Amino acid sequence: MDDLQPLLKVLPAFQQARVFDDPSDYTREYLPSEHLDRFQMYARRIINLHVEATSSQPVRASVLLSLFRALGHQPLLPRLRTLTWEHSLLTDHDVLYFVSPSLRSLTFQFLDSVASIIATIHGVSGKFRYEVLCEQVAAAVPYLEELTVLSDDPPTTSFPSAHVVVYGKSP
After folding, report:
1. With CB atoms 3.0 to 4.6 Å apart as the test, which of 104, 107, 142, 171 could cross-link to 84 if both were Cys?
2. Which residues, listed in sequence order, are joined to residue 164 by a DSSP beta bridge?
3. Kindly report the CA angle at 105 between 102 and 108, in degrees rounded to 5?
4. DSSP states of 27-46 as a string?
């Protein structure tokens, strides 16, 4: 699957709007259980996902967080086996909504330079945020067989696991 929009459209509470020529999406506060059941029925069918930062209709983190909370903090795609996560920030934690024990192959492709990891935001270094992300992913995917990290500059921080890790340059 290359886009989350079709899956989200099974939720009547999911709405899309255009605000000042910026496509936006959101969920209403209340997500009835029958709507969540329908979402979960379709979500269980997805075993491959490719998420691109440059998607024409990216899903906002607030929508993912709303669903994650409504589903009792369970992965949004519980049977996901392959995930390619292309994003512009090394420290983007939205991937955590999708990692689950069923995941076997994970590819991170970061569009920004790893040099940006040196930046400090609100007193927290980018390197620390990246390390925390790696630790959280490693804890959530005990059966991961392959991890690939692609970036213009390979990260200086290694993944805290015995998983097969391949570092490389972005294509």
Report:
1. 107
2. 146
3. 120
4. E-S---HHHHHHHHHHHTT-
| Enclosing domain of residue 134 | 5-168
Nearest C-alpha neighbor of 108 from the set 46, 157, 57 = 157
3-state SS class at 116: helix
User: How many other C-beta atoms lie within 10 A of the C-beta of residue 70?
Assistant: 19
pLDDT in tens, 125-162: 777 777 888 889 888 998 988 888 777 665 555 555 54
The residues, ordered by sequence, that sit 6+ positions from 13 with a Cβ below 8 Å of its Cβ are 27, 28, 30, 31, 32, 35
In the chain, the number of structural domains is 1
Residue 77 has pLDDT above 90, yes or no: yes
Model pLDDT, residue 68: 92
